[in-house]
Amino acid sequence: MVQTNNIGQIIILNGTPRSGKSSIANVIQESFEGVWMNIGVDHYMKMIPQRFQPGIGLRPGGERPDLEPYIVQMYIAMYESIAAHSRLGLNVVVDVGHHDGYSVSRNILPTCARILSGLPVLFVGVCCPIDIVMERRISTWKAGYNDDGSIPKPVALWQELVHSPGIYDLQVDTSSLTPNECASLIKDKINNGYTSVLKSIENL
Fold it and tell me: Rounded to 5 degrees, what are φ and ψ at 157?
């Protein structure tokens, strides 16, 4: 991949927790040409004081309306940083879980899209069936189904809301593709040229 006019490429990986975003981001960082900075939810949350956790990692459900104004500010700040890195010629991969399942609509995704206006952005939906997500949650966090066998409400809400409105340049399914295969599809999409969906997201 070739940088144009010293502007770095931006790849946004949007999906639920345990959908495989971080694994794809790692492949991109280690194998794609040039310097790739990872500015995503996990890294950003490490900067947030404990009393404002989980910050931008807040799950859908409107559980912490007191945090929501700060979360809006944090998303704006993170995306301003993403834009700054790109304008300085550094490529950026972002693993994030966008949703609008707050106590009131916060319109965070369109706001963030407008911040990146004019920059080369590939918006990727990282999809994974909920049964596979549950297997990974149990394996990683030892947290699985409710006692009655049902899926915990926050997990179900993630699955329902993270891909709304579902406008993407590319979608990958990590239940059938390895991180390397997903990264290869992303590389091909960038190298073959594409018309970004960013404007459609800005106008939501």
Answer: -65, -40
